[in-house]
Structure formats: structure tokens, C-alpha cells
Design goal:
Elements (H helix, E strand, L loop, with lengths): L17 E5 L4 H12 L3 E6 L4 H10 L8 E5 L5 H15 L4 E4 L30 H22 L15 E6 L12 H16 L3 H5 L1 E8 L5 H4 L2 H4 L12 H13 L8 E5 L2 E4 L21 H11 L3 H4 L2
Helix pairs in contact: 1-9, 3-4, 4-5
Length: 320
């Protein structure tokens, strides 16, 4: 299964392909879905709910006569049964898929948050359930979805489907974060999940040369999405005049580049902050420079730190 040394990397175009995107009911993943559709790529949107803008996009492209076409498959990414059904429905509708983006994620919500331990009032993580919802969404789901995609691509069950090879390539694009490059006490579980995604992608980098599956990631900074704007407790950490937002469309373009550009080989992580997209080095990377106001860290982050330190003294949260 090893590709010959010195062999060229086949080109990859999204034109005429089919992509599965989890979490595409809003935000970055919705922008990515829209970009792929504009490049003649079918899209399966897998999410629990759709924002109005996602419903509008689907309405434009959902007809069976439309090309490219978009389909919504309601999916709870924490359910492995739902993930299997997501792939099964995609294969039933399109016969094949070529791109996977397991992009659904959450940013340290009160209901699954290190600073709201299981059993505390704000947390929906039950003290006796042996798991954190945030980690199920941010780590377990992208790992399991990648496994399922590889299983199909290597050993397809649909008739006349050619297995993946370096000459018949496929793509996986993950969403990490600048929080996976620099520590932040405000969001330790989110940070851990994004460090994990970056490490996971790095580990799977050799798959492109070996079997033709490129696994890459983007690492956004502050992005103007509902993940921030719909959460006042997070938005208060941002100085709207000082901090620099990047847009979901900028991140989507970086994701698209990871699919098509030949020099962004497997294991690549592209950081996306205000007015800048750069390749993150595996070793000795200088990291994002939030001192320049590039949107890699909210400028009022210290307020979040103060709140956390006060909450540690609250017995109803941290007591026995």
C-alpha cells in the first residue's frame, strides 16, 4: 500500500464530487458548504438544527434535478448510530462521497465545561455518566467519522465503486483552533480537544502518500459566528473595537485550499486569523501573535480568568 518514492501527487478537484459536512447548519461549516456548492460539489449537511441561512441555502439546491445538490441529514454527532446513518444515506443518495469534514464542535458551553463540573447546577454532564458531552462532540465524533470514511473508501460495498488509492484520492478536513496551539485557562476542555485534533491530523498525515487520503485541518482564531455572537458570556471577553474578527468565508477558503492545493500535503494545519492565513509548523512554530490584535485571543480574556478564580471558591459548584 506504500506509494513509490518520488511519485507525483495526483491533482484533486471538488468539481463533480460529494462532501459530507457535520455542523454545517451554521457558521464556518455552512460557509464551507456554500463554497463547495459554488464549485459544483454536492453537499450533505449533517446537523441537529439549521439556522435560517442554512435553510435558504438548502432551498436553492435541494431539488433532485438541481446540480450541484445539497441534502440535510439530521444527525446527532455524539451518536455512532447517527454517524453510520449519515454515511448510509449519503451513499444511498449519491452512490459515493469524496470529502469528509467532521466540523461540528462547541466552545466550552456551560452545559459541558471544565469550570462547571458534572453534577453542578449549570452542567448537563451527569456525575455518574462517565463522559463529557464536549469531548464526545469535539474529539470522539471527528475520530469516529474519519474511521468510518476510511472503512468505506478502502473497502466500498457499493457496486462499481473503486477503492481509494493515490491515483483515486479522497480528502478529510478537520477544524482545530488557535486554542490548539496556545494554552488558555478560560477554555481548558475546548483547548484540550483542539490540541487533540491537531495531533490526530498530524498523525494521519502519511495516509496521503500511502493510500491517497489527505487529512488536514484549519485552526481559526476569533471568527464572527453564532458560536460567539449567540453567547453573551463569551462575547463579553471581546473588545469589538480592538479585537480582529476573521470571517467564516476566510476559514472556508482555507479549508478549500487544503482540499485542492498540491503543496498542502497530508498533516497540514492552516491557521486563520484576521488578515492572515499561514501554515502551522509541526515543531518550533512561533504560534499566533495575539499581541498584534490579530484575533487569536480575546483582549478581555483576563475578565474570564477573574470569574473562574472566583467560581473556585463557590461550594455549590466545587464542594463535595
Amino acid at each position: 500500500m506504500t506509494k513509490l518514492a518520488g511519485a507525483s501527487t495526483p491533482s484533486f478537484s471538488v468539481d463533480g464530487k460529494t462532501a459530507i459536512i457535520t455542523g454545517a447548519g451554521s457558521g464556518i461549516n455552512l460557509a464551507f458548504a456554500s463554497l463547495l456548492l459554488s464549485r459544483n460539489c454536492n453537499v450533505v449537511i449533517a446537523d441537529l438544527t439549521l439556522r435560517p441561512e442554512a435553510e435558504q441555502l438548502i432551498a436553492k439546491h435541494e431539488s433532485i434535478e438541481t446540480s450541484p445538490r445539497v441534502v440535510f441529514v439530521r444527525t446527532d454527532v455524539t451518536s455512532w448510530e447517527d454517524l453510520n446513518r449519515m454515511f448510509d444515506q449519503t451513499l444511498s443518495l449519491f452512490g459515493e462521497f469524496h470529502i469528509l469534514c467532521p466540523g461540528a464542535g462547541v466552545y466550552e458551553p456551560p452545559w459541558s465545561n471544565f469550570w462547571h463540573p458534572p453534577g453542578s447546577q449549570a452542567s448537563k454532564d451527569e456525575a455518574d455518566r462517565d463522559r463529557y458531552a464536549l469531548l464526545d462532540i469535539n474529539i470522539t465524533h471527528p475520530i469516529r467519522a474519519t474511521q468510518l470514511a476510511l472503512s468505506h473508501w478502502l473497502h466500498p460495498t457499493e457496486p462499481n465503486t473503486i477503492p481509494v488509492t493515490p491515483d483515486n484520492p479522497r480528502r478529510v478536513i478537520h477544524i482545530s483552533s488557535v486554542a490548539g496551539q496556545m494554552p488558555n485557562i478560560v477554555c481548558p476542555m475546548y483547548g484540550a480537544s483542539k490540541f487533540a485534533i491537531t495531533g490526530f491530523v498530524r498523525c494521519l498525515g502519511p495516509l496521503e502518500e500511502a493510500i491517497g487520503v489527505r487529512v488536514n485541518a484549519v485552526a481559526p482564531g476569533l471568527i464572527l459566528t453564532p458560536l460567539w455572537t449567540d453567547n453573551p458570556e463569551k462575547l463579553m471577553l471581546v473588545d469589538q473595537d480592538k479585537d480582529g474578527w476573521a470571517t467564516p468565508e476566510e476559514v472556508a477558503l482555507a479549508m478549500f485550499r487544503c482540499l485542492e492545493e498540491p503543496d498542502l500535503q497530508g498533516g497540514t494545519v492552516l491557521e486563520v486569523v484576521r488578515n492572515s492565513t499561514r501554515k502551522v509548523e509541526t515543531l518550533n512554530d512561533p504560534g499566533p501573535d495575539h499581541a498584534l490584535g490579530d484575533g487569536s485571543l480575546a483582549s478581555k480574556n483576563d475578565k474570564g480568568v477573574e470569574q473562574i478564580l472566583k467560581s473556585l471558591q463557590q461550594k455549590e459548584t466545587w464542594g463535595p
